[in-house]
Amino acid sequence: MLHILYGTRSDYRGEVEFDKNSIKLFSINKWAELRRNHFSIVFQELKLFPTLSGLENILIKSHLTRTTDLNTILRMAEKLKISEILEKKCEKISLGEQQRIAIIRALAQPFDWILLDEPFSNLDPENIKNASSLILQECKKRNAGLIITALKEDEYFSYNLKLIM
Amino acid sequence: MNLLTKVIWEGKSRWQILVAGAGYCVGLFLVLFSLQLYLDIESVLYPDGNESDFYEYLIISKKISSFNTVESYLLGRGNSVLFSKEEIEDLEKQNFIKSLGEFKSSKFITILSSSDFGFKSEIFFESIPEKYLEQVPQNWSWKERDKYIPILISSEYLNLYNFVYAAIHGLPFVSKSVLPLKSVKIDIYNSEDLTKRKNFKAKIVGVSDRIPSILVPEGFIDWANENYGNVTYTSPSRIIIEMDRASKPELEKFLNDQNYMANKERLKLSHFERVFQIVFSVILLVGILFVILSFVIIIVNFQLLVARSNEEIELLIKLGYTPKMLTRNFNIHFIKVISLVTILAFTFFFFVHSMFVSFLSNKGLDSDLSLSFVIVVFGIGFFILSFLLNWLSIHISLKKSF
User: Fold this and answer.
1) Can you tell me whether residue B168 is helix, strand or coil?
2) Which among B10, B319, B322 is the nearest to A51, CB-wise?
3) Best B318, B325, B400 residue to mutate vs chain A (most A CBs within 10 Å)
4) Where does residue A37 rank: exposed (0-12), middle (13-18), buried (19+ CB within 10 A)?
5) In total, how many domains does chain A have?
């Protein structure tokens, strides 16, 4: 579902509208603009560049808008306890660390909606707590909405809508 | 390093691009060098830049053979070397001849004497229609009662005078600009009736590179032939033609068929020029082939790179990069490669060209071998063309990958 909302899959029936326009009609440049300023995502499969370091993976995203400075990124990394591995190549770090890099990458840009596709699948409870509070804080800052998919029921956020499938 | 560059380029072998770049460099060098070689040789052949003049005007006459020598001896006249009316009409019909002018020659005896030049000699006069002179001197006309006769001499004669006659007799050299200041006397008379004679003052008003003769205005020849000449024929023995530069081979064939001759050296040079043009074209062709081939390899490699970076490109697009940003990144790299090889090719070219120039001047062929503006413009044009082609190719292959 998140892939549909993010415009990366179009093999669905029915209609998805954004600002009353069918998203199937959006051009590649329109999607690029949406993904830079309105939607942010943490992919289930993380999708980091293995040859780049953790920090570079975040910067390649934040450089697009330059709304998040390096200090903010470093503070977020500290909060998620990954400051030490920021300079390591992503192929050399653990899945849990990669997941936290992907979360920070998603937060290092402006957005109206953040889409989280099983964002905590590789994290222990303490890290989940840190991550969810950071996400919430960033959402509040932007007055942004949050859509999350998860396998188990959880109470990381105070949801106002739950779809159980 | 730019992060985008790192994602797209890291871990990908670039040696094909380097090899292709070297090929491009060699090709571009060959193209530049052959072009410059062409311009150099042209400037050595035609130092004054009046190359068109060299071929556009030719003077033709009949060949002197033992046959017409005997004929003229028997008939006592030079008739067999004259062009008949029919022959002139035939010449006019040839489509490689744009126009022709007849030489009129003096039919009286002419003695030139000049204390300034230190000699006295029997000479001849000729005239041709004004349009065949490369430059018509001021006051190029003559009427009875004019104070002097304007004379135009071949620049070769001036050289002969300066380098042979004046040098032997220890006389001062005469430059073109002081020629008109020298006083010259002309005596003309009828060869059969010595009472018919007259003397004139004359002025050498200029020199001609084109016409190897001593020229006076047509008005003077007409008047003097009528009053002092004793030969009745009016057919010309020499004809100047204005020809189509492109049809040298036809002209040569025609001259051979008709047993005519022309200023031989010029036609010989045209032979040389043709051989040279072939050599030049071959080098140019090889150079162009090299460039095209390497250029194709470079473009294919960039496309391959786009294909191999498919995953990365897909992810970059998912992160919010536009195709334009990616195209720009590829183009920057392309420009770097092309700039490098272009600069290398030019450097190599400058080096070889300066060696070539010093080789030529060692051989005594001094000429103005400055680098041509054309070459620089050509190099820049090439660069821009390459860039546009690659931009298009990247643009297309990137579009395919989404």
Assistant:
1) helix
2) B10
3) B318
4) middle
5) 1
B4 contacts A28? CB cut-off 8 A:
no
Query: CA-based diameter of chain B, in Å?
Result: 111
Neighbouring CB atoms inside 10 A of B199's CB total 12
Which of A34-48, A138-152, B5-19, B254-268 has the weakest average pLDDT? B254-268
Instruction: From residue B37, give the alpha-carbon distance in Å to each of B32, B42, B354.
Output: 8, 8, 11
- DSSP at B170: T
Q: What is the domain extent for residue A55?
A: 2-149
Q: What is the pLDDT of residues B234-257, one digit of tens each?
A: 788 889 888 776 667 778 888 888
3-state secondary structure of B209: coil
Instruction: Find, among B155, B153, B159, B151, the residue nearest to B188 by Cα.
Output: B151
Say which of B316, B318, B322 has its CB closest to residue A8.
Answer: B318
Residue in chain B nearest A110 by alpha carbon: B320
The answer to whether position A160 is within a domain reads: no
- Would A119 be classed as within a structural domain? yes
Q: Closest by alpha carbon to B326, among B309, B307, B313, B339?
A: B313
Query: What is the CATH classification number for the domain harbouring A124?
Result: 3.40.50.300
Give the closest residue to B4 by CA, choosing from B232, B263, B225, B313: B313
- Where residue A96 falls among pLDDT bands split at 50, 70, 90? very high
CA distance B321 to chain A (A): 6
Number of helices (H) and strands (E) in chain B: give both, helices first: 13, 12
Within a domain: residue A165?
A: no
B208-234 residue pLDDT tens = 888 888 999 999 998 888 888 877 667
Per-residue burial over B9-31, b = 16 or more CB atoms within 10 Å of its CB, e = otherwise: beeeeeeebeebbebbbbbbbbb
CA B334, CA B336: separation in Å to the nearest integer? 5
Q: What are the chain B neighbours of A29 within 8 Å (beta carbons)?
A: 322-324
Q: Residue B3 is nearest to which of A8, A33, A52, comparing CB atoms? A: A52
Coil/strand/helix, residue A4: helix
> Is residue A155 a part of any domain in this protein?
no
